[in-house]
Amino acid sequence: xxxxxxxxxxxxxxxxxxxxxxxxxxxxxxxxxxxxxxxxxxxxxxxxxxxxxxxxxxxxxxxxxxxxxxxxxxxxxxxxxxxxxxxxxxxxxxxxxxxxxxxxxxxxxxxxxxxxxxxxxxxxxxxxxxxxxxxxxxxxxxxxxxxxxxxxxxxxxxxxxxxxxxxxxxxxxxxxxxxxxxxxxxxxxxxxxxxxxxxxxxxxxxxxxxxxxxxxxxxxxxxxxxxxxxxxxxxxxxxxxxxxxxxxxxxxxxxxxxxxxxxxxxxxxxxxxxxxxxxxxxxxxxxxxxxxxxxxxxxxxx
Length: 302
What we know:
The chain is built from 12 helices and 8 strands. It is of the alpha/beta class. Strands 1-2-3-4-5-6-7-8 form an 8-stranded parallel barrel, surrounded by 6 helices. Helix 2 (about 60-75) links the parallel strand 2 (about 45-50) and strand 3. The longest helix has 21 residues, at about 235-255. This is Dihydrodipicolinate synthase family protein.
């Protein structure tokens, strides 16, 4: 069945929101609320909770539910909230999806079940079971580097044929596969998941992005989209280059821990990543402080 529902409200720039923590690894919900307000003020158009950047698989189910509830309450309808509810156990994914719906989330997203090499039938059954349990729109999360499952037109097709499936979060460098899916399902929303290919993904048919470094440099994503939409590809490429300069530096420091440090923009303390991740050292923090100054300068020149 081809989707008839209008999902255009999700064609936005989403922050793959970090999960602020205290030194004892407890969730700092007060800082989380402040972070949402701060990012809204910088132009962020939506929030993706408890994904890779939010340390979703290092959180308890209760923590994931409370994070979604906090973000929904803070955003208060000003921006859509997507809850990542994927995990290895179908029953847990169902519970998280139900809780996200009760909290007021606008959609849920799921990585496929991981670790065991589940069959295609088992993977599709996992998604279908979650859709039976919630009325929320569902986003397939394609991140093969972590799950070893590659969603292309063939594997994703039986899900994309269903009206409840909103689209795909494509965190992969395979732009051919992305283009084939966008061509086959133009009514769906395809979200770019790798910040370094945001502009390229727009050319391949993506109409939204969910990004780690949107936490850090949302102004550059907004500018890239604006230039692309007006046909100024040389200008858009220059801004994408600025995005990639930041991405390159964050990757060298450990992208998730560096993004979490910079998400506070020198004002909010979002804490370190949960163990077994190692914290940044003082030298790395100083290097990231210098990078932050450069990000501010680039944003001021837009």
